[in-house]
Amino acid sequence: MTNSILSKCFAFFQFTKDSLLFVPELIVAWWFLTKRIFLSLYRYWESKLFFDKVFFIFLFLQLLFAILPWFSYEIRFFEINESISLGPKLNSVFILLALLNFFFLGFWKSQWTRIWFFGAQMVSVVFVIWGYLDPKRYFYDFVKPEEVGLHLPFYLFLGSVLGAFVFGYLTFQKEDEVLSRLQT
Predict the structure, then answer these.
(1) Cβ neighbours of residue 128 closer than 8 Å, sequence gap 6 or more
(2) Which ranges does the record mark as transmembrane (predicted)?
(3) Among positive and negative, which fits the CA dihedral 101, 107, 111, 112?
(4) pLDDT of residue 142
(5) Cα 127–114–126 angle (5° rounding)?
(6) Is the pTM higher than 0.90?
(7) Domain locations along the chain
(8) pLDDT at 165 exceeding the cut of 80
(9) 8 Å CB contact between 74 and 82
């Protein structure tokens, strides 16, 4: 029995020693992989037109502001006021549309992605306006609407949707112009 415990301790010691010796190699491998990914993203970024870069930034901001909480209300616990922040009930719809727009249009362009983009932007705008007009149904349902305040990310989300729409249109126009010059 002593021999078994001793052999297991020796195996554990050997495993720990080999693992620690492997850490520097692993760090170097991750460093080169990370460097390669960022360099390829940088080359990709540099190959883009100006409008496309701004469009990409607006798509990223739209995704960021879809994730952040849009509303706040105060609740009282034992004579202590506490502010609660919350997102809309349809938050998953806004996040999904923004995420798909970011990946489809940030890294891949085709005719159907243009249709998808404008359709998704319209759906986002319709749901935001609809929710603004009837917040108990689309944004929150357990709080009185007069007790809820809008946070800055709500307005920034609307601004990023509008900015993405405008720069998406300008990007698509510029791409069509460049393609028509290449075809003639």
Answers:
(1) 94, 157, 158, 161
(2) 20-38, 50-71, 91-108, 115-133, 153-172
(3) negative
(4) 65
(5) 10
(6) no
(7) 1-47, 48-183
(8) yes
(9) yes
